[in-house]
Model the fold of this input.
Amino acid sequence: MTISIKDVEQVANLARLSFTKQEKQDFAEKLTAIVGYIEKLNEVNVEGVEPTYHVLPLLNVLRKDEVQPSMEREKVLANAPDPQQGCFKVPKIME
Done:
């Protein structure tokens, strides 16, 4: 498949780009070469090959959600500027 200058102009118009005649010719040649490389993939025998979604196996690396002891409330609130009823008091951000 060859990419024509008209194809380059159409894509450039959609992308709101402007090119000189020489740039359009260069892009047409380069895009034709790229499509040619991609078309070579049609020649490869892939019968019996499982689809690959990622080149590396992806694993969930999150830890299990287990209950663990935490700090005492008094220690946590020790540096709070204005604790109230065992909680952090923060400034109002919405009316």
Q: What stands out?
A: The longest helix spans residues 21-39. DSSP finds three helices and no strands in the chain. The helical segments are 5-14, 21-39, 73-77. The chain has a mean pLDDT of 90.
